[in-house]
Each structure stands twice: as C-alpha cells, then as structure tokens.
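Comment thread on ticket #2218

A.B. wrote:
> Attaching the input chain for the structure job we discussed in standup.
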Amino acid sequence: MVLRWLTTTDHKVIGNLYLVTAFCFFLGAGLMALMMRAELAQPGMQLISQEQYNQLFTVHGTIMMLLFATPLFAGFANAVMPLQIGAPDVAFPRLNAFTYWVYLLGGLMVVSGFLTPGGAADFGWFAYAPLNGPVFSPGIGGDLWTMGLVVAGLSTILGSVNFIATILCLRAPGMTMFRMPLFTWNVLFTSILALLAFPVLSAALLALEADRKFGAHVYDPANGGAVLWQHLFWFFGHPEVYIVALPFFGVVSEILPVFSRKPLFGYIGLVGATAVITVLSAVVWAHHMFATGAVLLPFFSLMSFLIAVPTGVKFFNWIGTMWKGSLSFETPMLWAIGFLVTFLLGGLSGVLIASPPLDFHVTDSYFIVAHLHYVLFGTVVFAMFGGFYFWWPKLTGRLLNERLGKAHFWLTLIGFQVTFLVQHWLGAEGMPRRYADYLPADGFTALNSISSLGALLLGVSTLVFLYNVWWTTTHAPKVGVEDPWGFGRSLEWATSCPPPRHNFLALPRIRSDSPAFWINHPEADEERPVPLPSGPRDTPGTADTGETAGTAGTGDGAGTAGAADAAERRSS
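C.D. wrote:
> Ran it. Output below, let me know if you need it in another format.
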C-alpha cells in the first residue's frame, strides 16, 4: 500500500493523498488554535510564553490558508474533476504526482521551524515588514517559513497548469464547456486565479529571503519597503481568499441540486458570477491596507462593495435551486446549508468593513478575526465536510455514518458560532488581534472565556468526525451501486464506487449538464422536482438499520434500479 502511494500517478489516489495530508495539517493548526484559546481564556500568561504565542498564531494562519485550504482545493479537484468531465486521468499524471510531493516538502519545511533553536516564524502569516526581516526575526525559522512557502507555491502553480490543461483538452465527447458541472467550472477559474497570484507571492518571498540572507534592503522601511511588501503580499492575499473559496462554492453547487431533486437554478448565471468574482478579486487587494493611508480609498472601497454583487447572485441561485424542491436533509445537505448561513454572515460583515471609516475603527481588532473566520471557516470547512460526506462513497466505496454525521454537523455549527460570534463584540470593544494577553480591567474576560469554550466544542466535533471515519472504514458495508444518493446529476455518479483505474468502463452519452441523472431517471420531468417517496425514508449510512448502502438515500430503491437500468442500457 505504501509503495503504491509513493509511486502512483492515479489522480484518485493523489487526490486522496492531498485530502489526507491537508486534513492532517488542519488538525495540527486546530491544536494550535486550541492552545491559543486556552491561553486567552483568562488574563495573564497560563500555558505558553508570548514568543511561543507569536509562533503559534503565525504557523496556525499559514497552515490554514496555504497548507490546508489551498491543497484541499487540489485534493477535491484531483479526486472529482476528471470523473466529472469523463477523463481517464489528468493531462499530466507524473507532474500531478510531483506537485503533491513538492507540497508535502514545502509544508514540512514550514512547520519544521518548531524544531530549530529559535523556534518557528513569529511575524504573523502575512509577515509584515520590517518584522519579517533579519533584525526582528533573525532565527532560521523565518527562513524555513519563507522558502517552504516558495516550494509549496510551486506545487500550486504546476497543479493549476495541469487542471487547466485537463479541463480544456480531456473532456469526453459531448461534454461541452456549458455542460460541465459547476465544480469543474470553479476549478478552472480557481486555477486561472492561482496562476495570477502565486507567482507574485513567490517573487515577494524570494526578495524577502534576499533581504534576510544577503542584505538586499528590498523591504527597508526607509525606502517605502514596508508598504511595498503589503502591496505584493495582498495582491496575492486577496485572490488567495477566492482561490480557497471558489472550489467550495462549486462543492455546494453540486450538493444542493441532488438533495433538492431539481436542476441547478441559473447555471449560466452561476458561471458568469464565478467569472466576475475571478476578475474583481484581483482589483480589491488594497482594502487590506486602508489604515496605511497609502492607497486610493474610494476606488478600492467601491471594488470591495462590487464584489458582493456576484456573490449575491450565487446566493440567489442557490436559494432558487432549493425553492419548491423536494428537499431532504441528509448530512451533505446540512453542511451545505450551514455553509450558506455562515458565509452569508461573514459576507455581511465584509460589506461593513469595505467602508474605510468603519475599517479604521476595527482594523487589527478581533472584529477582523471574526470576519475572516466566518468567511474562510464558513466556506472551506463547512463545504469541505459537505464534500467529504457527499463524495465519500465515490472516493472509498463506503457511506459515512449518517447519525454521527449529523451530530458532527450540529456540534461544529454551535461550536463555531459560540467561538467567533462573540469575537465581533470583542473587536468592537477594542481587543487587538495577535495579543497574547490582556488585563482584567479591560473587560474582555467573559467574552474570551465563552470563545474558548466554543473552540473546545469545535475540537470535540472533530473527534466525532474522526470516529465516524474509523467506524465507516471498519464496519460500514460496501456501496453496491454507482449513485448511492439516488439523484446524482454529474458524470461521476455514472461509474462504480470507487471507480476503476481509468474511471469508466464505458462512457454514457452526454447530452446535457446532468448525464448521470438522465441515465438513472429517464422518466423524470425537467420542469418539476422529483418527488420524495411517500413512505418512510431510509437514511444512508446509519449504523443500526441493517440496510445495505446500495439502496441508501433513495427510499424506493431508485438508486439501485436506476443503476441496473443504466448497466442494461450500456450493455445493449
């Protein structure tokens, strides 16, 4: 097994490697967050020193943005996108394997700073100058952080080229661009955006290393270098927000139609909104720099307000997909709805701080911490778990336990809201971000204690998921059909769970943007949702119903019958 992983060029195995590795980084960053919240639960230094606290929040942010969320996009893209377009593999399989190992090397370089005498990088994940220079951060941990991100960024650049080539060149006959699933469209736009943003980050980091090792003075504050670093970093940094968001918009766009039993509402509008977001995300970077006084406030404020418009179009279409549908609330649907609620709240606070006067008031406070977690955790983590529960049978051949999945969802939703909702109030009351301590007289103790309790609940919710994975691996029956949900629409639901080495034994005819749905439901009416079965509805993946995964999620055996009909039609 290990040798197979080390030598594989199968996009599905590489996708699983990305997903597992990114999730391991997520767990590590989560433990760092728990240590920080434990430290902040009460005034005074309880557990760690201020230097260690600085290292923790630096590496926590770096992992979550660059070693978890970005590679997670590559994991889902590898695992699902070739299946959705009917490709046997990605365009460059060996390059694909290379990108994974480069990512792993870069990530290990970043976290290995903890093993050095001076500790890991401690200047924040955005490494503001002059704190990132040799005077204030002389240790080797800063060099490992800098060059580790250069190496990991190379992985993202090469992977993006591979994804673009795959989507443009390897689509199956009949799979026109406007028959591609929304997830594949979002992978395409995300890859284009990554090719714009990551080379800028790599160049900025190489210049930083030249400052640190060769005295280049590129980011010398006396020459305006501190503001130059902010421009270069945020020109990468804001597109990065959408590099990690757009793929998960696509995940939600795949889940909602399946559990609404309706076609996706406003397909063209969603593609157009994704394109507009891709363009606008490259012209709003300086809203992170309002407080510097060195940017054109009216322009960047207007662009920041405008980017809410295509996002609003997406929300309108997602709600339109569910409107008057035959809704069912399996675990993937719960995560998708949790994503909608949480990301909406984060977007609303984003509209607030797009106004410079409000931003001046709350910049570098816990209000910003709350906003970015609502936007990023609400997007990446909620949609990630939705994608896990949705595609787990396609990736592994087994359905995750439904009851454990719902417990996991509610614990995560409640824990998240308790952790980060109160941080808006902390920020409004003036608590600065990145501080390791505060005074009892500041009045922050009660809200910080509540936030820390919520973080503990988030940690417990993750343990529930890990137990679910173990239980499913050891106890759940194998899925016996191509589409265990019964109403899958895109092409990955027209092959076995898990798929064969080159994905399809025979490709079905592709005549619409929902080829698998029409194979399994030729009798359906496109103008109305497929009705729910009238009798009691079985729940997929439960531990004690005794049902097989083959009939799960359909209630009337539509998944099994549809798969059998599909096999009969293909054989004839």
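A.B. wrote:
> Thanks. Noting for the ticket: DSSP finds 17 helices and no strands in the chain.
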